[in-house]
Amino acid sequence: MDQGTLDSFAEERDKLSSGKMTVFVDNRELRSSVSDYLREFKVNVVEKQLTVADYVVSDRVAIERKSVKELANSIYTNRLFDECYRLKEAYEIPILILEGYLPVVFRFTRVNESSIWGAITSIAVELRVPIVPTPDTKHTARFIERLAYSEQVKIKRPIVIRPKEKVLTLAQQQQYLICGLPNIGSTLAENLLLKAKTPLNVFKQITESAVTQSKTGKTKRLSGSVAGVKGIGPAIVEKAKKILTSPYLKDEKNDNDKSLIDDNTITDRE
Fold it and tell me: Which of 73, 87, 152, 157 has a CA between 20 and 30 Å from the CA of residue 60?
């Protein structure tokens, strides 16, 4: 171990033993001004490459931060569910910060309003991850600072740098696999598995299901084995079938590569 590494360890040890609050911040989050505000609030900011969470304030509390600008894209790609799921599995108290003015997303996104509210509902109810709204990065930093004060100063909880993710049972891994499909939360994934018995059968039943237009053309109807599963509908099946049956084209560029929100319209308030 070289001297530079030893110095770095010593500096971090001194910070943690100084009695001041410390927050571990994923290095990708340093592009926002949250870290600057945390330092302004007298918090020791320690940069780390975190595998789970954007901010860690104790051994049990960790935070995923999403700006409204990022929200629609992360819902569309299912990244938000994946991040929240892993956050919940790794920490006793996971928290999602939703930063910015949410109604702006409804106006300038290709994802419809009901899908956004549905995703937020699934995270809060099915994953049971608390969602905390903040108006901007300064208020996000203040909330994190208060969390750190409560955990580290008031009740003397230690801060853990890299917690190990919980080992998932086979059933949890199967459910997690199905949750990788768009708009399928943990409850629907469980319902599909109970019906089909195996993940492979779930995929088969989805691809074999049919979506047809009603005579008026105003509504769509779902038929097939998954039609009787509570919580599933034509829109979910259509998106899932597209992912399961489309050829993998590594270098192909299409509309999904474009941001779902006009970057010139929505800006983060930093």
Answer: 73
pLDDT of 256 = 44
Of 47, 143, 137, 50, the C-alpha closest to 95 is: 143
**pLDDT for 54:** 95
For domain 170-257, say whether CATH 1.10.150.20 is its number. Answer: yes
- DSSP characters over the chain: --HHHHHHHHHHHHHHHSSS-EEEEEGGGGGSSHHHHHHHTT-EEEEE--SS-SEE-SSSEEEEEEEHHHHHHHHHTTHHHHHHHHHHHH-SEEEEEEES-THHHHHSBSS-HHHHHHHHHIIIIIS---EEEESSHHHHHHHHHHHHIIIIIIS-----SSPPPPPPPHHHHHHHHHTTSTT--HHHHHHHHHHHSSHHHHHHHHHH-EEEE-TTSSSEEEESGGGGSTT--HHHHHHHHHHHHS---TT---GGGS-SB-TTT-----
pTM of the model: 0.62
CATH number among 3.40.710.10, 3.40.50.10130, 2.40.50.100, 3.10.180.10, domain 7-154? 3.40.50.10130
Ramachandran sector of residue 22 (left: φ over 0; alpha: ψ -120 to 50; beta: rest): beta
Domain boundaries, the chain: 7-154, 170-257
pLDDT digits (tens, 9 = 90+) for 18-66: 458 999 999 999 888 999 999 999 999 999 989 899 999 999 999 999 9
Give every residue of the chain whose pLDDT is below 50, as ranges.
1-18, 163, 254-270
